[in-house]
């Protein structure tokens, strides 16, 4: 049968129940039977719990859905490539740094001072952040 808190307080011991238990639903049974004031509070709580709906956020609902597209795309993945002209402009040194030559040596060189032209002839190194990206693009192997 049912646990004792579902039954009216005056009918805990007696086996005769006012409504046929098999033919009626639990909610109908609890609402129609005679209850004491303490039992009415319990029934009110049970009825409230029966009526409560579980509110699911849209984020949780999206997580529970099956993904529409496959997790791994079937389209061929392409490798990012740098311009082929870069291979002549940069050189990897033995310690891993990338060497570059200065720009601006030729254009309007007659307007530049001898000191700046001499400085432009000397190679310099690529900064570490740029060198990391260039290695990923395999600019200079």
TrEMBL record:
Keyword terms of this UniProt record: Ribonucleoprotein, Ribosomal protein
Biased composition (Basic residues): 107-121
One of the record's GO cellular component terms: ribonucleoprotein complex
An example Gene Ontology molecular-function term: structural constituent of ribosome
Gene Ontology terms describing biological process: translation
Domain of life per record: Eukaryota
Disordered, as annotated region: 103-124
InterPro entries, per database record: Ribosomal_bL35-like, Ribosomal_bL35_sf
Homology family: Belongs to the bacterial ribosomal protein bL35 family.
Name the record gives this protein: RIBOSOMAL PROTEIN L35
Organism: Salix koriyanagi
């Amino acid at each position: 049968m049912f646990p004792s808190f579902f039954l009216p307080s005056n009918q805990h011991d007696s086996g005769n129940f006012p409504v046929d238990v098999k033919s009626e639903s639990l909610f109908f049974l609890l609402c129609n039977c005679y209850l004491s004031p303490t039992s009415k509070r319990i029934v009110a709580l049970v009825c409230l719990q029966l009526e409560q709906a579980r509110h699911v956020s849209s984020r949780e609902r999206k997580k529970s859905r099956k993904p529409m597209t496959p997790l791994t795309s079937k389209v061929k993945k392409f490798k990012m490539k740098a311009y082929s002209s870069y291979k002549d402009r940069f050189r990897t040194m033995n310690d891993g740094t990338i060497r570059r030559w200065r720009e601006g040596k030729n254009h309007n060189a007659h307007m530049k001072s001898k000191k700046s032209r001499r400085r432009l002839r000397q190679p310099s190194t690529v900064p570490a952040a740029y060198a990391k990206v260039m290695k990923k693009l395999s600019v200079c192997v």
